[in-house]
Amino acid sequence: GKWFRADEDVSAGDALTDGVIDHQNIVDDFKTEYEAENGESAVTYKFIGFPGESGRNLGVVTIRGTSNSWDALTDAQLWSSAALAQYVRAILPLGNWLTSILPYLVKAVSLIESSRLEEVAFYKQTTSFIEHLKETSDLYDNIVITGHSLGGGLAMISGAQTKVPSIALSGPNALISRFTFEPQITPEDLEKYTFNIVPDRDPVPRIDDLSQNYQRIKCLSSPNAPVDCHFGKRSLCEILYTCGSSGRPVPCSCVNEYDYPEPNIIDDNGSTFAENCS
């Protein structure tokens, strides 16, 4: 089948055994109904289907990361109290003793800023969308949530709230700020349903405290450019270089932009990696 099939190509009785499906119609219909009742939101997400045999098919909700100044403001407002609490803990003697009470202090601050936080609570729509899929869609046996940066932070919040597995890349965490979300999330749900990939020297996934499940990865950018470690494409290249590509093509940018060595050829078709990427 095609790599991507559109929603309208999938009938209600489709067995969904091949192709990858962009379910944009499902997303659009939900957003229209949700925002008519709750107001417009700047959050952007997709629902991508990976069909397969029963028990092995997968629906993935992907949430867009920070891409403009409004998204950056959202990051700052949702996680500023947690970041401030981390700073205070770091500079105070025996500050680690405060760790257990930080969530309560951050919750108290959030009550003062409740109206502002409500404006940027993008996770409410993504959480509602996941609940909608669980209640109404039987297309896939398994659903996961993923995102990068802000999208990763929202994925972990929605994953913990809906009890659906979530994988974040460079996402801000939710352990200290867990009481500020509605509904509140527990450390146990964060431990069970969230996973964060944390590149070296990337400042964003160091906002709020990491939960139990995370994986640190290297970053080969210049020590003077830590922001470069936040780039999702660079992190993808590091993961492919460290773990292998399992036969999938390696992006040309891994070699041409980020200085990773050329991958080994596993199927010699007469052309080199450099020739294919020229």
How would you sum up this structure, described in words?
This protein has 278 residues and is α/β, with parallel strands linked by helices. Helices cover 40% and strands 14% of the residues. It has ten helices and eight strands. It has helices spanning 24-38, 69-91, 102-112, 114-119, 123-136, 150-162, 187-193, 232-243, 252-256, 273-276; strands at residues 4-6, 20-22, 45-50, 58-63, 142-148, 166-169, 194-199, 214-217. The protein has an eight-stranded mixed beta sheet with strand order 1-2-3-4-5-6-7-8. Strand 3 (45-50) and strand 4 (58-63) form a beta hairpin. The longest helix is centred in the N-terminal third of the chain and has 23 residues, at 69-91. The two termini are 29 Å apart.
How is this fold's topology laid out?
Elements (H helix, E strand, L loop, with lengths): L3 E3 L13 E3 L1 H15 L6 E6 L7 E6 L5 H23 L10 H11 L1 H6 L3 H14 L5 E7 L1 H13 L3 E4 L17 H7 E6 L14 E4 L14 H12 L8 H5 L16 H4 L2
Parallel strand pairs: 1-2, 4-5, 5-6, 6-7, 7-8
Antiparallel strand pairs: 2-3, 3-4
Helix pairs in contact: 1-5, 2-3, 5-6, 6-7
